[in-house]
Amino acid sequence: MGRIRVAVVYGGRSSEHGISVVSAGSVLAALDPAKYEVVPVGITPAGGWVLTDGDSARMKIDGRSVPSVGAGTAVALTPDPTAKGLVAVEPGAGVRALETVDVVFPVLHGRFGEDGTIQGLFEMAGVPYVGSGVFASAAAMDKEFTKKLLLGAGLDVGSFVVVRRSSPVSVADVAHLGLPVFVKPARAGSSVGITKVTSWDDLADALALAFDHDDKALIEAAVVGAEVECGVLEDASGQPEASVPAEIRMTGSHDWYDFDAKYLDDAVEFDVPAQLPPDVIELVRADACRAFTALDCAGLARVDFFVTPDGRPVVNEVNTMPGFTPISLFPQMWAASGVSYPELVDRLIASALRRGAR
Asked: Average pLDDT, whole number, for the chain?
């Protein structure tokens, strides 16, 4: 059999563009060239699709600067399911067929990549792809509906209030949440646009920042407890399997896990696996699988929790395309569970091919 042709799609129009590029660099470096023929496709911040050289050495954070997708041959994924391929669009040369694609690995975070939109394009094109489908991607991206589905499945979530730009709220509407609260865009990730509010006088500014990224925001009550994450993968039969969980501990001047703490500053330490009692670890792993099923996820997810002092897991978020950077916890948790980074990528591609076009 010939090599599997994998289109690794990365970058994108969201505020998480740079982190997507870093994640994709790690994925590209892990793909075995004897097994895979890689077609690296970058999406510029403006939304242009370009064929790139896929040089993972240049897809890294440099100091406090994150990489970005630049120029390249313009390409597009045709929605024609009989073609199942990419076409190149070159000035003066018209449109020409470029590659037939066996599977797409969308290493995309945030809007237009993790929210069901590009998944719909893959389904129109009839191409298998890694990760969750349209519904699960959209539901997990929208924190309002994530929490509602989790509550419906009997899982614990923290108290929250949904605010829409068109329907402002007063402090009286949210005072029952207590202080501090976290104000965040409903459909963003990597802690972009989030503010920790310790005084109600700062609520309006926090909402304004969240509305820079979305027309809908969540105001969430702070949950006291350890910040814990757990990875989920489908096994060969399509059932969810949980990794060992990890615990995040803040160091230095940061008092919560914001963007700078995650990616730019040496401000966190990780316990992989988490130093929790065995019975609590099993609760976290079981709830991670329950959350995966509640949202109808596929392929992979990372489920984020707060574990209260009495050992109760409270689900915070579900990420259908978690970070794949060298410091990301998803690959670290699976490595601690006996699945190396290259094996992890292999499993995800095999899962997508097994599922086939949706």
From this structure: 91
Q: CB under 8 Å, gap of 24 or more: what pairs does 342-349 form? A: 342/30, 342/31, 342/32, 344/30, 344/233, 345/27, 345/30, 345/31, 345/105, 346/32, 346/35, 347/233, 348/105, 348/130, 348/131, 348/233, 348/299, 348/300, 349/4, 349/6, 349/36, 349/103, 349/105, 349/130
302 in active site: yes
Choice among 14, 137, 190, 316 that is catalytic? 190
Residue 212 is given by DSSP the state: T
pLDDT at 37: 94
Q: Is the CATH number 3.30.1490.20 carried by domain 160-221?
A: yes
Average pLDDT over residues 181-203: 89
Helices (H), ranges, 142-195: 143-152, 171-174
Q: Domain extents for the chain?
A: 4-129, 139-156+224-353, 160-221
Please confirm, yes or no, whether 263 is among the known catalytic residues: yes
The domain covering 139-156+224-353 belongs, at the CATH homologous superfamily level, to ATP-grasp fold, B domain (3.30.470.20)
Would you call 282 a catalytic residue per the annotation?
Answer: no
Cα angle, residue 130 at apex, residues 109 and 295 outer, rounded to 5°: 70
Which pLDDT band, with edges at 50, 70 and 90, does 78 fall under?
Answer: confident
Per DSSP, helices labelled H in the chain are: 17-30, 117-125, 134-141, 143-152, 171-174, 203-211, 259, 278-294, 329-336, 341-355
Select which of 23, 56, 319, 328 is catalytic: 319
The single residue of 111, 187, 290, 302 carrying the catalytic annotation is 302
The one catalytic residue among 10, 317, 347, 351: 317
Average pLDDT estimate for 335-355: 97
pTM strictly above 0.85: yes
Out of 3.40.50.20, 3.40.50.150, 2.115.10.20, 3.90.1310.10, select the CATH number for domain 4-129. 3.40.50.20
Q: Which of 42, 247, 323, 328 does the annotation list as catalytic? A: 323
Q: Is residue 319 annotated as a catalytic residue, yes or no?
A: yes
Q: Which of 13, 15, 16, 113 does the annotation list as catalytic?
A: 16
